[in-house]
Model the fold of this input.
Amino acid sequence: MTTQQPVTARPAGRPRSEKAERAIIEATLDLIAEGMGVSELSIEAIASRAGVGKTTIYRRWSNKEDLVVDALATLKAPLPPLAGESVRDDLIALVDVMRHEAGQTRGRCVMNVAMSEADRNPRLTERFIKRAIEPRRTAMRETIVRGVATGELKPDLDVEIGMALLSGAMLWYGKWGPGGELPADLAERLVDQILTGLAA
Done:
């Protein structure tokens, strides 16, 4: 007597192609980096640059906004694991992600073009911030609040100003600093300087 093997049903539709998805994402970012505003960006142009059909895009994204949000999100590195033992070390890890991104010329260019149209695409901007920016803000906020609770940071610290100092310093350095590759120890230096304070 033979035992019949169960038949595994194949999922409906064509299998997703990671290569095609990557080509579509890259085409979207390339077109924006070349100066094409999000409003002027079209599925046709993206499909042509990626070498795929429009239906390939629409099988993965229901509209242009979804695609652009996903594409922009790929420019943001994932949050680093935080040990939770030292507020200083965790802040350095969070700021160092910003240092890495600030050194990516193409990524900065894409972000500048995309965010310059925030008033014309408020929903897209809102969705991108919620997906890619707010988790970082939350992680930094929680780290600073933890530092106040443990006594590593002063009890009357204004958490929002502390966040602005840390993230703003790295953003300024990346955009208006001396240029060239950002030093590997820049996040550590910025965090230490800000934690120490600027007063004599």
Observations:
- The chain has two domains: 18-67, 87-196.
- Residues 1-15 have pLDDT under 50 and may be disordered.
- DSSP finds nine helices and no strands in the chain.
- The radius of gyration is 22 Å.
